[in-house]
Amino acid sequence: MSFVKTNKSKKFGGSNVLEEHLLYQGSWSSLVEFSYEDEKKQIRKWEGLHRKNNAEAVIIIAKMEPSERYIIIRQFRPPTNSYLLEFPAGLVDKGETRDQTAIRELSEETGYVGKVQKISPRLYSSPGIVSEAVSFAHIKIDENLHENQNPKAKNEPGEFITVFNKSVEEISEFFNQEISHGVKFDAKLYSFFLAQGVL
């Protein structure tokens, strides 16, 4: 099964995907072979993955006020055969905005409610293999709201998520403790706190 690209608009650099050939269709993702034209007009092949329905994801950087603690989660990720520390995240459902996804996923995974302060452009975390676009949603959580006093997560079946609230000052020690238990890190989470200068 092949899909021929019809978008002939000029792109920066001149490279362009000409065709996608489906190699395998799974429940959640598709393995495809790309035929693309490079800058020298040579046709080349590449393999990659699409999310089901080309869904995009939102990564939620949720900060609690007034304590200035961040919401971090731990969950098992089968492709890594490890538990990972991550920011809450989720896929954008059909008909949703990225802001709506961020608020919904934060509530489902942690029980907290908050307001989106800003959202990043669409970014790519592993573009050599996955087409998925991700956005960072910065959310403010008002700790004084009644619904944030004793939050109750609504995890989906098969989701087992542990929620942590950590200040920047606690991150280094917390990460070291998790490492001692064999826990791994999502690159986006680690990079965020690395940029804060606490790692």
Q: How would you sum up this structure, described in words?
A:
With 199 residues, the protein is an alpha+beta fold. It is built from 3 helices and 12 strands, in the order E-E-E-E-E-E-E-E-H-E-E-E-H-E-H. The chain has helices spanning 98-110, 168-180, 187-195, and strands spanning 2-4, 16-25, 29-37, 43-51, 57-65, 70-77, 82-86, 89-91, 115-119, 134-142, 162-166, 184-185. The model has no long low-confidence stretch (mean pLDDT 92).
Q: How do the helices and strands line up, and which of them pair or pack?
A:
Layout lengths: L1 E3 L11 E10 L3 E9 L5 E9 L5 E9 L4 E8 L4 E5 L2 E3 L6 H13 L4 E5 L14 E9 L19 E5 L1 H13 L3 E2 L1 H9 L4
Parallel strand pairs: 5-10, 7-12
Antiparallel strand pairs: 1-2, 2-3, 3-4, 5-8, 6-7, 6-11, 9-10
Mean pLDDT over all positions: 92
Strand segment count: 12
Tally of DSSP helical segments: 3
Molecular shape:
elongated
Rg from Cα: 19 Å
The helix fraction, in percent, is 10-25%
Strand order of the largest sheet: 1-2-3-4
The N- and C-terminal alpha carbons lie at a distance of 47 Å
**Main sheet, how many strands, which sense, barrel?**
4 strands, antiparallel
Q: Could you list the spans in which at least 5 consecutive residues all have pLDDT below 50?
A: none
Percent of sequence in beta strands = 35-45%
Class inferred from helices and paired strands: alpha+beta
N to C succession of SSEs? EEEEEEEEHEEEHEH
